[in-house]
Amino acid sequence: MMRSLFSGVAGLKTHQTRMDVIGNNIANVNTVGYKSSSMVFQDLMSQTTQKASGPNAATGTGGTNARQIGLGVKGGAININITGQGSAQSTGNPFDIMIEGDNFFVVNNGSENLFTRDGSFYVDAAGNLAMTSTGYNVMGWQVDPETMDIRQDTVSALRIMSTANLTYPPEATTQANMAGILDKNDKDSTSANGKVVNLSFFDALGYVYTAKFAFKKSDKMAATDTAPAQDVYSLELVGIQDAYGNEVPGVSKALFGDAAIQNKAGKVSFDITNYYWDGTKLMRKSDKSEVVDVAQLVTAAGDGLTNRTAELKAATADAPAVTVQDGLDALAAAYGFEGSTEDFLALRCTVNMGTDAAPDNQTFSITHMVEQLGKGAATNDKLPTYPENATEATFDTVGRNFVGYNIAFNSNNGEFYGVNSTPTATTRVLSLSQLGGNFSDITIDFTQLSEPDNKGTSTASATSGDLKGLGAGRRLGKMIGVSIQTNGMIYASYDSGMTKLLGQIATASFPNASGLEKHGDNMYSATLNSGEFDGIGVDITASGGKMSTGQLEMSNVDLSSEFTEMITTQRGFQANSRIITVSDTLLEELTNLKR
Length: 595
Description:
38 strands; 15% helix; Tick-borne Encephalitis virus Glycoprotein, domain 1; 595 residues; nine-stranded antiparallel β-sheet
């Protein structure tokens, strides 16, 4: 038989294999992350019919080359273009990830780690990040619970939708600030209720509450040798409500501030049309009936009029009991403070305790003056009373007692001057911890308040958090989204405005990535020639790579190149078939020599 016949057969087989490689490339032209292959040929062994000889000096003849007849072709290698980057296909799915670089995703099939460039992922029912095609878990690094940073140790499944990750814990508010303008001509700040400012805050369980504060304009403080002229406002806690508008029990003004004095001149008018006084008894003019006997009231109420529930008149079948509070309410109403008993009792009056020749001006609260009236003291520090025939019933006040702080502004430039006129005092504490439960104290900063002209409109407001936004507190946050950064770090965002690091997608890098072994399903495994995977992996950015979300890496098959290879392969196959045909013809001629 002729050697060419067997060479042609070898050529046919080899070109057929090359066609298989080309066909596989074209078949996977749209396979995510597919890397094209190419085949190279090698010649088979050659039959040597004559060895090579060297020159012979004795005979004067030259050397001859070896005579070798090739015996055909074989496949040399099938190479994978594994480092060739495929084109990007946009999908809009945040869990579709494309690697830019030479690294591979690490996935686990339950028994071993495999490697892939297919970044089509989803979150399965267990909350794990997994491949959409095979369900294999995507491997990565977990978050250290103490430092909340990535801990790069042995890779493990990324369970990003665990129960713990679905919510972000609440936090109590610990810092707040008041900012904006307090216009000295704002009518709210000179009204009985003052300029109300609301502070929304959270307790440790994330429940929201509103603390109401009131600014009330005081009289201007004159300049001294050590301090400028100041515009002053009293600031006090009005109350605290929950999210449904209910008053929080146990709240007192003492949660914010100390006993303080507001200096503000004013007047109080007694209602001589409907009331008059008979000694210590407040009388009603219409029927000459007693409204309240202050002597009886003071005895029942005790020092400071503190026992407000003590009875002044027992209940009957026709009427409920009359208490100290009822008596004080009636007293305040007679002086024009109906519904504002505490405001009335806090007022301060200056009286002359001496004589006109030697005045001894002293200031007392209405509470004290009511007490003195009830005790029948023969002094001037008693509540002004008016007989039935009084024609004028007005007296001056100089301020009021309150619990809170005085907020001062420099009258020359309108800038915040300090709490209680102390320039170094810029913050004060709302002592909510006294309420117990899940409340925390809140430190309030006032440095951002000012007093420029704003056409009579104040813009002062209170905001949770310090000037950097720290300590604002938060409610329980529910996960509203997941994002993956270019370095593979996975963050969750919550409706409370917080973000949380959930883990990081690890990648694998190999000294010889072309040495990886294909496993089907877009998978590769490590071999002796690719280099081993250390079980930890690498940060993709360490080698200059990155991850792009919402995109998938397409096949790197070049159709123009593949079709060109297909043509040359077809012609090679065709030529080898002709070798067999011609060799057969030669053999036929040989057999025809004998007729």
